[in-house]
Amino acid sequence: GHETSASALAWMMIYLAHYPEHWEALCEEARAVDEIPSTPEALAECPLAEGLFREAVRMRPPVYAESRRTTETIVLDGREVAAGTLVHMPLTRLSRDPTVYPRPERFEPQRWFQRDRKITPIETNQFGGGHHFCLGYHLAVLEGTQLAIAAAKILGAAGLRPVLRPDRLPRTVFMPLAHPPARTRIHFERRR
After folding, report:
1. Angle at CA 96, nearest 5°, toward 149 and 130?
2. Total Cβ atoms within 10 A of residue 181
3. Alpha helices in the chain (DSSP H)
4. How far apart are CA 23 and CA 10, in angstroms?
5. To the nearest whole percent, how much of the chain has pLDDT over 90?
6. Which of 39, 46, 75, 192 is in the most buried spot, having the most CB atoms within 10 Å?
7. Rounded CA separation 58/70 (Å)
8. 79 — phi, psi (to 5°)?
């Protein structure tokens, strides 16, 4: 999970550098809290910091596609897909679905504020789903919020702010994540 977290945190800082109005608002939020949040309950005091992280992950999901093999024949978008077929789901497309996210191409951390309902699985698709949901999801949200508040407290107190040069968002570089083959198995033996 360190590569995905690092990517999400880097994008959050890039967006803060690109949108100085969010940086200023984040510094205000950081000054209003006594300390960096260390519990899920403390996140409630930092809605902008949490929204910044969630929005960065929505806009630039570190894992941009998921694959699953069908276990039975299914119909997908009007087409029959045979059992055993590998199906790819583009998380970047799901993360910009206008029926879920109004103005999906805009970076709007406030879309995560004052929610009157739980966040839905489609809104957390960047962390997987079902049996494949990221075990570190809550930790990632907490550490994203912590980084935002810590950066604003420390850099803001020093009179510094992030700046993006040149002032345009960089393109995403897609690199597959390294992992062992799915059929890899490990067993344990006693030492001799």
Report:
1. 80
2. 5
3. 2-18, 20-32, 47-59, 91-94, 137-157
4. 15
5. 41
6. 46
7. 26
8. -115, 140
* C-beta separation of 157 from 149 below 8 A: no
Burial readout 34-58 (b: 16 or more C-beta within 10 A, e: otherwise):
eebbeeeebbebbbbbbbbbbbbbb
Cβ within 8 Å of residue 19, ≥6 positions away: 107
In order, the DSSP letters of 40-52 are TGGGGG-HHHHHH
The continuous run of DSSP H or E covering 74 comes out as strand 74-76
Q: What length is written for the chain?
A: 192
Spatial distance between the Cα atoms of 132 and 192, rounded to a whole number of angstroms: 37
Written as six digits, the tokens of 171 are 């393109």
In the chain, the percentage of residues whose pLDDT exceeds 70 is 88
Structure tokens at 30: 């950081």
The residues pairing with 74 across neighbouring beta strands, listed in sequence order, are 81
R_g (Cα) of the chain, nearest Å: 19
State both tokens at 85: 């077929």
Chain segment 51-74, per-residue pLDDT in tens: 999 999 999 888 878 888 999 999
Output DSSP code: residue 158.
T
